[in-house]
Amino acid sequence: MAVLYYFEHIGPRDIFFAIIAASIVILIHKKKKIKYINFFIRHFERPDIKYEGLGALNFLIGSFLTMIIFGFNKDIVTASILILSVGDSISPLIGLKYGKTSIKIFNEKKLIEGTIAGIIFSTLAASVVVPMIHAFIASLFAMVLEAVEFKYRIDDNLSIPLISGVILTLLSLF
Q1: CB atoms within 10 A of CB 125
Q2: pLDDT category, 30, cuts 50, 70, 90?
Q3: What are the residue boundaries of the structural domains of the chain, listed by start?
């Protein structure tokens, strides 16, 4: 999605309609299981998720809000969505495969190896459109805050791109 946004093939209006379409599909799927949707949910949704399809919907909402709030800078929007897409995807994969050390002070379910991998890979992805040091700082903040267990949990598909956008906007002032 970030690449499509960067090259102006999609924009906030497209994502808004995708949010509506995804919401309708999720509601229909809740009443009557849709074969192909069920396949994706079984293979890509976390098993502990309360509402099927919510992760994908929140990804769209987080991307939409990022486009609306930081739309004055295409590079910030693209980098923020890349940090979400790459960092949030790679963290659990590496954490589950190679992780051994839980982050006890933040969240015992998160593994340090996954968080570090998320920081590294999202930095590399975001550095395509923003300076490497900016990509690193934004990735570091987003991935560390994603690992923290707060009393009131905000879905990381919403928080990661917004945190990244704020950090990148602040860094662009210097």
Answers
A1: 22
A2: confident
A3: 2-172
Contact 113, 70 (CB under 8 A): no
* Joined tokens for residue 125: 């992805």
Q: Which of 36, 121, 119, 129 is nearest to 79 (CA)?
A: 129
Cβ of 149: how many Cβ atoms within 10 Å? Answer: 11
Name which of 28, 149, 134 is nearest 76 in CA terms: 134
Q: How far apart are CA 48 and CA 100, in angstroms?
A: 21
Q: Considering the chain, what is the average pLDDT of its residues?
A: 87
Tokens of 137: 């700082």
Two structure tokens written together for 162: 């917004």
Measure the CA–CA gap between 76 and 163, rounded to whole angstroms.
11
pLDDT > 70 fraction of the chain, expressed in percent and rounded: 86
> In terms of pLDDT, which residue wins out, 152 or 169?
169
pTM of the model: 0.88
**Inter-helix orientation angle 156-172/54-69, to 10°:** 20
Amino acid in position 130: V
Instruction: Measure CA 172 to chain center.
Output: 21
**C-beta separation of 157 from 101 below 8 A:** no
